[in-house]
Amino acid sequence: MLIGSISISINNFTSLQALDLTSNNLSSALPPSLCELKDLLELYLQDNSFIGHLPLGLGSFAMMIDMDISANKLSEELPASLSKLQMLEYLNLSHNTFVGHIPEQLDHMLDLDTIDLSHNNLS
């Protein structure tokens, strides 16, 4: 089990295509350097204790297919930049404490097959 936070030097893994840190004891905010992994196809960070907001740079994952950041302690509003994930097929952000409205731009994500935003404070 990993404890602590994701290192800000995660961006050194420039060819990384999948990152699975599921069910650890990771906390703190998600580092913006995570968004520099341009080749990332799959991101699994569920069942940790991440806090704060989603990094605004999440929309930079041009080839991302699966993203699961559920069961954390993330809050604030969902960034409209999520809609830039045009290849995304699966998005799970459930069981956090997101607030506000679901961005209308998510309607433009044509490849999205599954989206789970349950157990948040969204309207």
Within the CATH hierarchy, at the fold level, what is the topology? Leucine-rich repeat, LRR (right-handed beta-alpha superhelix)
Shape: globular
Beta-strand content bin:
25-35%
Radius of gyration: 13 Å
| SSE order, one letter for each helix or strand | EEEEEEEEEEE
* Helix-strand category: mainly beta
The number of strands is 11
Question: In terms of per-residue confidence, which ranges show pLDDT below 50 for 5 or more consecutive residues?
Answer: none
Describe the largest sheet. 6 strands, parallel
**CATH architecture descriptor:** Alpha-Beta Horseshoe
Write the layout of secondary structure elements.
Elements: E1 3-4, E2 18-20, E3 25-29, E4 42-44, E5 49-52, E6 66-68, E7 73-76, E8 90-92, E9 97-100, E10 114-116, E11 121-122
Parallel strand pairs: 1-3, 2-4, 3-5, 4-6, 5-7, 6-8, 7-9, 8-10, 9-11
Structure description:
The protein is an all-beta fold. The protein has one domain: Leucine-rich repeat, LRR (right-handed beta-alpha superhelix). 0% of the residues lie in helices and 29% in strands. It has no helices and 11 strands. The strands form 2 sheets. It has a 6-stranded parallel β-sheet with strand order 1-3-5-7-9-11, with no helix packed on it. It has a 5-stranded parallel β-sheet with strand order 2-4-6-8-10, with no helix packed on it. It is globular. The termini are far apart. The model has no long low-confidence stretch (mean pLDDT 96).
